[in-house]
Amino acid sequence: MSDVLVYVGGAVLALWGVAHIAPTRSVADSFGEISGDSRRILVMEWVAEGVTHISIGVLVILMAALEVSADPAVRLVYRVSAAALIALAALTALTGARTPVVWFKLCPFVLTSVAALLLAASAL
Q1: Using CA atoms, how far apart are residues 46 and 42, in angstroms rounded to an integer?
Q2: For residue 23, what is the DSSP state?
Q3: Residues 74-92: pLDDT tens digits?
């Protein structure tokens, strides 16, 4: 059962990361006329968060597929990943989610939900 939770959470997170990266150009364009340096920083941060989501999603899926879920190291990976997602969710809740952009408002819920699945999987 714990592997199912991890597979679902990992897949949701990886897809959320891809969906995060896909509109990078239009997101950067939505800021209007900004300096080249500001645009590069915006793009860098936008892509970095998407890559983080994908990386954590792939990591937990690989742990579930390749290791025994009762292994303490596997449980630690799930818990540390959940903590990172909760930290990102809190950051987003305090920053981007305070804007009128719906996707920013949704992001903390997606990240917290996946963190909950990973914590549940680590407890089983």
Answers
A1: 6
A2: T
A3: 999 999 999 999 999 999 9
Asked whether 121 and 2 are in contact (CB, 8 A), the reply is yes
End-to-end CA separation in angstroms for the chain: 8
Say if pTM beats, i.e. exceeds, 0.85.
yes
Which residues lie below 8 Å from residue 38, measured CB to CB, with a gap of 6+?
Answer: 31
- 35 burial level (CB within 10 Å; 0-12, 13-18, 19+): exposed
What are the angstrom distances between the C-alpha of 104 and each of 7, 71, 83, 107?
24, 35, 19, 5
Distance CA 119, CA 58 (A): 16
